[in-house]
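To: structure desk
From: M.T.
Subject: fold request, one chain
Message: Could you run this one when you get a chance? Sequence is below, nothing fancy, just the single chain.
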Amino acid sequence: MKKIGFLNGPNLDRLGKREPKIYGTTTLGEIEQFVSEEAKNLGHSSSAFQSNHEGALIDKIHEWADQGFFGLILNPGGFTHTSVALRDAVVASGLKTVEVHLSNVHAREDFRHKSLISGIASAVIAGMGYTGYIAALRFLSEES
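Reply: Done. Structure tokens follow.
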């Protein structure tokens, strides 16, 4: 059984209310439930955490690494493009990481095209809506 962390950054607590034409109407709580159920179906466990604060996200990555988690499904939100500290925490953790974005960031504003996380992630998923998180979980399930 693998332990997989599901980490979401700033403003993702507003899913279901925030720009539904871009992010859909599914709430983060609903997505967390979908991920948890699929993890159980695959024989794994998952823990979810969201914060609007960079340090809290970094602390959670450290905690999960120290607890022997295998993987990380990460939607860094706006920190995708700005946080060297978050990137460094992912690298230091040793967690197999999949970067996930609900929208196709490459079809949006130019500043969203550069990710500080993509280069150190095992995989990147963008534009699949909440099903991207399930795809990330299945990918991590098959990794060794």
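Reply (cont.): The radius of gyration is 14 Å. Let me know if you need anything else for the meeting.
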